[in-house]
Design brief:
Helix content is 29%, strand content 19%. By secondary structure, it is of the alpha+beta class. A five-stranded antiparallel beta sheet has the order 4-5-3-6-7, with helices on both faces. Strand 4 and strand 5 form a beta hairpin. Helix 1 packs across helix 4, helix 2 packs across helix 4 and helix 5 packs antiparallel against helix 7.
């Protein structure tokens, strides 16, 4: 069976995500349910997008900001461009994001509001869109080599970026129990096939049991309805013949 590109298997714990509103959770007890920060206003989101989403075709979509890690917007369609830009405001909302339900762990209403603003500014007629999501929950092993882990993660992200369909890569920092979450949002399931073929990714998959004491993968569809009026997550069904599977559309 084709393996998905699991960038989350390489989440680097000492590099905080480049989020406008995120904070480090290195020393935070994971079972604490206090929100990390207030939800930003619409004006704050707009100012963030104006500052960080320039007219240039290259967009920062991960903690890595050098050229090989940037998404080339010319390689994806308009809906995917708009979603990638909206996802630049994505950040965790809870201190226990590593174990929280995915739809509660992040500021999805803020992302959707950002998407609505971008759609309006562009005068774009948004139809129902589906995106493919990979969620990797893990507990680091005591013997994990963090330096090697970070190097592999960065190289694997370059490999995934070359596929052209990776719209967002986010990872947090492990809590006091070593638990963490990493997530990738792709244009479609088919895009992950290219991202999983790189040498670094294949090496990482073979070393997973040595890097993590525990790990689990979840796959979901991120659905955004017509005119961005509704949004939800659904469990992904591994059936390539299903009419519900998101397809790559330009």
């Amino acid at each position: 069976m084709q393996q998905d590109h699991l960038l989350g298997t390489l989440g680097w714990p000492f590099q905080a995500p480049n989020s406008a509103y995120g904070v480090s959770t290195t020393d935070i007890e994971a079972d604490t349910l206090i929100p990390l920060h207030p939800i930003p206003s619409s004006q704050q989101v707009y100012e963030f997008l104006q500052r960080y989403c320039s007219q240039d075709s290259l967009l920062v979509v991960s903690p890595y900001t050098s050229h090989p890690h940037l998404l080339d917007l010319n390689r994806v369609g308009k809906p995917q461009q708009l979603m990638a830009k909206a996802l630049t405001v994505m950040s965790s909302l809870r201190r226990d994001f590593a174990i929280a339900p995915y739809d509660e762990a992040f500021n999805w209403p803020t992302v959707i509001n950002a998407l609505k603003g971008l759609v309006k500014d562009e005068g774009f007629s948004w139809q129902r869109q589906e995106f493919y999501v990979i969620i990797f929950r893990s507990t680091l092993a005591p013997t994990t080599d963090y330096l090697r882990l970070g190097e592999m993660d960065e190289k694997a992200h370059i490999e995934a970026t070359k596929s052209g369909g990776l719209l967002k890569y986010w990872f947090g920092e492990p809590d006091v129990h070593g638990r963490n979450l990493a997530t990738c949002i792709w244009r479609c399931h088919e895009d992950t096939k290219g991202g999983s073929q790189g040498d670094t990714h294949q090496t990482a998959m073979k070393r997973t049991k040595h890097i993590f004491a525990k790990w689990a993968v979840e796959r979901k569809k991120f659905v955004v309805g017509p005119h961005v009026q509704q949004w939800w997550f659904e469990d992904w069904q591994e059936d390539s013949s299903s009419s519900n599977n998101p397809k790559c559309k330009l």
